[in-house]
Amino acid sequence: MNGPGVESPFKRVAADFAESRLALAGLATLILILIVAIGAPLVSPQNPYNLAQLDIMDSKMAPGGQSLDGMTFWLGSDDQGRDMLSAIFYGLRISLGVGTLATVCALAIGLVVGLVAAWFGGWVEAVIMRLVDLQLSFPSILIALVLLASLGQGVDKIVIALITVQWAYYARTVRGAALVERNKEYIEAATCLALPTHRILFRHLLPNVLPPLIVIATVQVAHAIALEATLSFLGLGMPITSPSLGLLIANGFTHLMSGKYWISLYPGLALLITIVSINLVGDQLRDVLNPRLQK
Amino acid sequence: MLVFIIRRILQSVIALLVMSVLIFVGVFAIGNPIDILINPQADQAEIARATAALGLDKPMWVQYWDFLRHALAGDLGRSFSHNIPAVQLIFERMPATLELALCAMLFAILLGIPLGLVAGMKPDAWFSKTIMAGSILGFSLPTFWVGLMLIMLFSVSLGWLPSTGRGNTTLLFGVPVSFLSWDGVTHLMMPALNLALFKLSLLIRLTRAGTREAMLQDYVKFARAKGLPMRRIVGVHVLKNILIPIVTVIGLEFGSVIAFAIVTETIFAWPGMGKLLIDSINVLDRPVIVAYVLIIVGMFVFINLLVDILYSLLDPRVRLAEARA
Amino acid sequence: MIARLLSAFALLAICFSSITIASAAELVVGLGADVTSIDPHSNNAAPNNSIAEQIFNKLIENDARQNQKPGLAESWRTVDDLTWEFKLRRGVKFHDGSDFTAADVAFSIERPTILSSPGGFTIFTRSIVEKTIVDPYTIRLKTATPYPNLPTDMSGLIIVSSKAAKGATSADFDSGKATIGTGPWKFVRYVKGDRIELARNDNYWGTKPAWDKVTFRLITSDPSRIAALLSGDVQMIEVIPPADYAKLKNNKDIAIFTTVSNRMIHLHLDSSRDKSPFITDRAGKPLEKNPFKDARVRKAFSKAINRNAIVERVMEGLAIPAGQLMPAGFFGESPNLKPESFDAEGAKKLLAEAGYPDGFGITLHGPNNRYVNDDQIVQAVAQMLSRIGIATKVETLPMSVYVSRANKLEFSAALLGWGVSTGEATYPLRSLVATYNRDKGFGTWNWGRYSNPQMDALLEQGLATVDNPRREKLLQQATDLVINDYGIIPLHYQVNTWAARKGLAYTPRTDERTYAHEVRQAP
After folding, report:
1. In the structure, what pLDDT confidence band is assigned to residue B321 with cuts at 50, 70 and 90?
2. DSSP letters along A88-143, please?
3. A274 partner at 20 to 30 Å CA-CA among B210, C54, C179, C488?
4. Interface pTM (ipTM) of the complex?
5. How far apart are CA C506 and CA C143, in angstroms?
6. Helix-helix angle B239-259:A122-137, to 10 degrees
7. Contacts of B54 in chain C (CB under 8 A)
8. pTM, full prediction
9. How many other C-beta atoms can be found within 10 angstroms of the C-beta atom of residue B298?
10. Cβ atoms within 10 Å of B6's Cβ, excluding its own
């Protein structure tokens, strides 16, 4: 198909993407972060989740301090004697995993439910949208607490809690956008052609309601991570012995006024850098991929 | 229109019923309120007495039925720990939260939409990039962290603003409000900013994305070719076309701001409903939790109704008859 | 633009500072926990009682070390084994000017029984079977069995005005309508979740407060409360988080007041069941046998814990290693007991003797929002246990979830804090370590279901002995038995803390109360 002078779509996207140096820098940082997160057990000086490796006598050491058995805490240690650097590496892994997984699942559920509601209307829509209303008004802290009490503590429960909290949000946004789109000519045309419903929904309607959603989704990955941090802050998050980035920040919260800045500041910085790079990449990708922005 | 609204109200009643069942079961799953409310000096006999006094010894469905009967008579129960009617308790705390939420939302809208428009019209300019980079900061740090940082900066280091609390209130139509006195305003500023930050970032980004697309549409090109002033093109044509997703999100966010200002209210010791909810959840004050969530559901249903009506005003293609839900 | 913004802020700062310069006679205090009601008989929770006790009085008051001292009763004695007589203080007036008499006492003993609320005050009144008003300033209270703790109960029950509180609801107290007391402060205003304002009672029968007015602000977030103190929004706060202690101590503008708390942090070990839910072998397979039935294993756990390290590192010095149920100076405290010394080798040896040379696996449970640094303590203990070969996991939960599960005995090892609000030993012995018995009201919080019939007998004897020295002896013996059998593993006593702007003085209290009338200008 590629005639002379016509680039492959992939090359075109790559070239467009590379137009922004900022986005490139973001991509490089993101790749680095992913490598560190995935390879955390290999690159960390310590396994921060193994209680036997920690010593309370090493706690709250300032950056550069030495542990009793001679290890250097480059970014200091937390109140259990965890090496902050190792804890951040491991925490990145959990936070990124939890944030992405929860957002992707919630987005998928929200998309399907929202499209179905907008397309079919009638009682289907009524039921779905009232369900959404219910979900949105159920305090996320209460959901997390009920899950914690009935299912126990753990990463999987946090993901479930985050999905439960977020899907309705997408569903409502998708429905709003789809209501507008379904009255446009191209959908009418598709309907006239008697295309199967699922084809109209997912091949025609979906791509057109996606752009505003992607904006929300990139923000929501960050939001999911921050929400997880907030749940941890309220004591409803990750198990305390395997801290995520959010839990590290929440733990450090008590030290913010005490001058032991490193316990909260470095995890905060790590989170900030991660989210900024995700969004730099996300923003550029969205602009590049959006056909309507092509001149 | 009228049929639409009536149908929505009927649906909402069912929603409220479902919700009340969910909360009842949920609070049961969390734990036994007596366990945490009782004074530790109480022995088994005293615990049994207190359990019976609050009706917690009956089977769950009987308790629910009792609740329902009273609720239909307008009584949502009495707070375990405050020992006054739950509804009264919530309405006492509501003005503080509503004021905070309104301020935060106004802040986000008045700042977010113009900044987003600017960033969307000139996407490659340095100020647009600054705006976008700044907006990332708004949602990447947890609210509690930013809140405390604000306090440290503006209260402890600079001494410009009071650290916590609501300060003096003035009665406006019998409702205590802060924004009428200078003391109140200074107390309001930081928590409102803290609460607005995430919404602000979201609005900037949504508006920018919408504007960028709209600017390339034919109607804008046509309007420009006709020589319409830029101000009119953006203010009327572009804005109208990008408002649908923005209105949805504002509606959603306003609801969530009111409902879940928990963290901001805790950090800033703001005496609103969010603080009440977290305190009530901590002691499993079930009547308050149930009443709170039912009131919030009612509010969400109302806001969503408003949003749907706004849709039809903004975009005549969406007719209410179709947006039955 | 920026310059203009800055000048606007400067202007704002000036306006603001002119507002906050409070008159010297006004005190603003930041409290660390929510006050849910002003009704002194509705919810028996410490934050509520702390406020009520400043507006109202009790027959018997507690001093800063929880020793009883005359309050509205000038003296009390036993007429016979079943009857107590209280002589009331004369000339005491309620805030509305009416006289305080025995009728008010009788009314106040009656009121808790007719209110339906969860954390009620009937625990203080239920032993009383008969009240006789001998004359307006003498009242006799009769109990069914000999009951030496009646004065202790009366030091918990607040006396309200029989006139103002007749038929009053909790809402009437919140609004101030029924809030007519005899205490050092008069009620001015209560804004739920925000503040309580009180004004000096110029006709107070005791030492009058040094301030015209006091405002208690409810600031439950720890760092925010510290910030409020540092920025000068409040002049005094209670509960300094350990993390901020060192820095505050070095702050020249801040004075700190500390004393040992009546609250002891300890572990319950599941010591009576044959199988325990969270005990496994090292690989994680459930263990058929419960090692905690063997006192040597419990002793090994106690020895493995380095209490000094917890105090120094986790609590930043704001705790005292504990060796029994109550700190020194409380009634029934045993002179024979010391905190267990840290000895990891000895602990390993004990485990080997008990048949667990390679240790086993366990999950420690604890709350994460109840006691000072509770989740950190559980983690630190887990670290120490893993050093003697116990494969330890940690699960910390919000108190609302935790306490219900613990009461259902779902845990194998659980952390609890016990504030001895009565100031004497029958209370912790009865609640924490006596054999569980519904009829006697024993072992209500005995999460380990520890049982020692010999100890139970001593305690029962102590509960029925009115003679103080003899009772003290019995309680000490009971305590020795429990601790030496490792029926409970004490970790530390908390330290109560207050911080104030320089120039203020406060006598720190073991009972965690923050009394504005005891705040003075430093000499």
Report:
1. very low
2. HHHHHHHHHHHHHHHHHHHHHHHHHHHHHHHHH-HHHHHHHHHHHHHHHHS-HHHH
3. B210
4. 0.86
5. 38
6. 50
7. 116, 118
8. 0.88
9. 17
10. 10
